[in-house]
Amino acid sequence: MRERRKRRTKKKCRLCGMKVNYIDYKNTSLLRDFMTDKGKIIPKRITGNCAKHQRMVKTAIKRARHMALLPFTKE
Questions:
Q1: Is residue 11 a contact partner of residue 47, using CB atoms and an 8 Å limit?
Q2: According to CATH, what is the number of the domain 14-66?
Q3: Angle at CA of residue 61, ends 58 and 64, nearest 5°
Q4: Which of 7, 12, 20, 49 lies at a 20 to 30 A Cα distance from 34?
């Protein structure tokens, strides 16, 4: 017997839907949505971001970490 596999719908980029042109590093509430509770950046295959917005999220999180707005890690 063959098991039917569920087709996954492709995740839409949330930031494209909001028509975001720039992600500010000071907007920590938005950036925390793209981080785990341990402080790691969630990959785009899980969040559904497009490549452009994932790069923007990455640089914004790294800038916020250097400005001590976000933690590097949580043990």
A1: yes
A2: 4.10.640.10
A3: 150
A4: 7
